[in-house]
Amino acid sequence: AWVLLGLEALNFANEGKLVIAVAREAAEAALAQLECLQAAGLAMPLSINISAQQLRHDILLLLIRGAMSCHDLSPADIELEVTESTAMQNMALISEQLISLQQLGIRIAIDDFGTGYSNFEYLVKLQADFIKIDGSLIKNVHKNAIHKAVVEAIVTFAQKVGMQTVAEFVA
User: Is the pTM of this model over 0.90?
Assistant: First the structure.
């Protein structure tokens, strides 16, 4: 018997043909939990991280649509997070998939912004709804003038183009 833990299991799934099966199971479990929370009166959006491998499959859109229907959830209940590095792997295809998901009403976030490519043109092409500023910038913003300037620039840019921002690691 093989035992794979954490990142090792995700890497194994991404390398093989399991990426959609893993995405389907993870989304199903997360959406079922969200349905229970909403039934208990706790309304909140669910953020789901998705990989480039998952975004390359057209079936992802159908899986998400089916899971939302099965659990009587609105697209507004779901936020999909894509890391900068994921989005850069095939910009045209990834952008097309993200736009299709947005057309369903699902919000898209660029996760870990400020650590990878950090190109504002990518943000424009991906048409994300919000930017999650990486915690490595946030945790030092009060001690480091450069980090503060970078965060201010990201927030100003986001405001000017109608995107929201989320700061990771805020205590």
Answer: no
